Amino acid sequence: MLLRGFPTKGKNGQKRMLILVLALAMSLSSSACRADNRMPSSAPSEMPTELSTEQPNRMKINIKVGNKVITATLIDSKTTQDFISLLPLTLTLEDHANTEKVSDLPRRLSTEDAPPGSDPAVGDIAYYAPWGNLAMYYNDFGYSNGLVILGKIDGDIETLNVPGSVEVTIELRSQ
Question: What 3-state DSSP class applies to 160?
């Protein structure tokens, strides 16, 4: 192989060519090792958790708490589709750390194609894969490995910000 402007004749030229080939090989092998582009599980996910208002097939759910109905918009993901397959669902949400209401689900959900973790915001509905539970955040919380955002409560979340447990019924909203 001849490169224009690169001396390849003689001992020095052969050494330069060998160094160039080795550098290229190292560069390619380093890129191949990072080809999966996954982040370490301790790093915050760069995957967006905000709901796009431009989603053509937004899924809506109703969350009945006593005589009040809260609506939420779910994102389109495999984990969310698996969650929807459980609906309608009646759960007792227990308070956890004055931050969220949580409840075990009847079975674990798929986390295929899910980010390694998420940083939930007030109003987020999420699945915590390590425990297999549903979480609804009424206060801010930090990044958690294994947390998959399912959607966001559309309006006021104060109905959930009460001491103790709350019974809820979650169902797919008729369009």
Answer: coil
Three-state secondary structure readout of 29-84: HHHHHCCCCCCCCCCCCCCCCCCCCCCCCCEEEEEEECCEEEEEEECCCHHHHHHH
Instruction: Indicate the average pLDDT of the chain.
Output: 80
Instruction: Provide the whole-model pTM.
Output: 0.68
- The pLDDT tens digits for 128-172 are 999 999 999 999 999 999 999 999 999 889 888 888 999 999 999
Task: Give one word for 111, left, alpha or beta, with left for phi > 0 and alpha for psi -120 to 50.
Answer: alpha
Q: Which residues contact 54 (CB under 8 A, 6 or more apart)?
A: none
And the tokens for 129? Answer: 């894969």
What is the rounded distance in angstroms from the CA atom of residue 145 to the CA atom of residue 129? 9
Burial (Cβ within 10 Å: 0-12, 13-18, ≥19) of residue 119: middle
Whether the ω angle into residue 116 lies within 30 degrees of 0, i.e. cis, is no
Whether 107 and 89 have beta carbons less than 8 Å apart is answered as no
